[in-house]
């Protein structure tokens, strides 16, 4: 029975892919090519396909095929699981801001039309932009609340960075609790925040799988970034004792990890 279900799921995905390729090639590129020079028709077709058509199609395919995923991965807008959660810090927002300022990391600017334009310009010219905005990733049904970064060689194309989602909890967090990751969290600003972090290192530019959107390439060894961030915080005496939850090794997509989540309290 499982084999038949899987078989028909694959057939459905193939049909969707064929339909999308026909739509892009004949209805978009074909029509634009009749009115514009081929180069401009090709560029416009790419933009429409990568940023409008393919993301919801990929999301639909994932709804059909998704199985056995670790729930503590963040998601992109297209539905793909992306950066895994690897650091959890407990403390106030002021403490979080202070400790990352102390280690020389910059708070990311909000993603707006103005900051996006500036980011594109600095990418093309390879000029420094320490507060470059982050793309939106999602956890608990919402995008990140705050993010910090450290540029590498003053290049906007390479950086150490981490996104955080704020939650409240009155008990010790068990990162292996599936319900914790899948439910929405309502925030109470009268309580201490728990900051759920997904840290990774951008190592250059590339194209996203399936949608072919221009994006940062990420170092697949996310443990290296986790350990780098923790070492910086520990050296500056910004965190207390580090405890680790071990959920088991995994290799999913481009990521390879020992699966450990580091948990620590922030110091004033």
Summarize the structure in words:
Helix 1 packs antiparallel against helix 2. The longest helix is centred in the N-terminal third of the chain and has 34 residues. The chain is an alpha+beta fold and 268 residues long. The protein folds into two domains: 64 residues; 193 residues, no CATH class. The N and C termini lie far apart (57 Å). The strands form four sheets. Strands 3, 4, 7, 8, 9, 10, 11 and 14 form an eight-stranded mixed β-sheet that branches. It has a two-stranded antiparallel sheet with strand order 1-2. The chain is 39% helix and 28% strand. The chain is built from six helices and 14 strands. It is globular. The relative contact order is 0.15. About 2% of the residues have low confidence.
Q: State the end-to-end distance.
A: 57 Å
Tally of individual helices: 6
Question: What is the general shape?
Answer: globular
- Helix and strand succession? HHEEEHEHEEEEHEEHEEEE
Uncertain segments:
66-70
Which class do the helix and strand fractions yield?
alpha+beta
The amount of beta strand, in percent, is 25-35%
- Summed over residues and divided by their number, the pLDDT gives a mean of 78
Overall number of structural domains: 2
Q: What does the largest sheet look like?
A: 8 strands, mixed
Q: Please compute the radius of gyration using only Cα atoms.
A: 21 Å
Number of strands: 14
Helix proportion range: 25-40%
């Amino acid at each position: 029975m499982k084999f038949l279900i899987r078989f028909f799921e694959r057939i459905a995905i193939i049909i969707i892919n064929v339909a999308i390729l026909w739509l892009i090639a004949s209805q978009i590129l074909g029509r634009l090519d009749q009115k514009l020079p081929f180069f401009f028709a090709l560029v416009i077709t790419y933009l429409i396909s990568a940023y409008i058509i393919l993301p919801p199609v990929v999301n639909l395919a994932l709804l059909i095929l998704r199985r056995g995923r670790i729930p503590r991965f963040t998601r992109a807008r297209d539905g793909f699981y992306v950066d895994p959660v690897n650091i959890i810090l407990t403390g106030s927002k002021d403490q979080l801001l202070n400790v990352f300022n102390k280690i020389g990391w910059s708070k990311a600017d909000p993603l707006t039309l103005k900051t996006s334009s500036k980011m594109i310009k600095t990418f093309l010219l390879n000029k420094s932009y320490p507060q470059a905005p982050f793309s939106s990733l999602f956890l608990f049904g919402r995008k990140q609340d705050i993010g910090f970064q450290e540029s590498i060689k003053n290049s906007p194309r390479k950086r150490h960075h981490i996104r955080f989602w704020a939650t409240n909890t009155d008990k010790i967090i068990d990162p292996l609790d599936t319900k914790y990751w899948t439910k929405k969290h309502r925030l109470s600003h009268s309580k201490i925040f728990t900051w759920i972090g997904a840290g990774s290192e951008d190592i250059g530019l590339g194209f996203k799988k399936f949608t072919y959107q221009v994006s940062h390439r990420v170092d697949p060894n996310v443990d290296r970034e986790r350990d780098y961030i923790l070492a910086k915080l520990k050296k500056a005496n910004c965190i207390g004792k580090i405890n680790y939850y071990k959920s088991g090794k995994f290799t999913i997509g481009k990521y390879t990890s020992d699966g450990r989540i580091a948990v620590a309290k922030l110091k004033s």
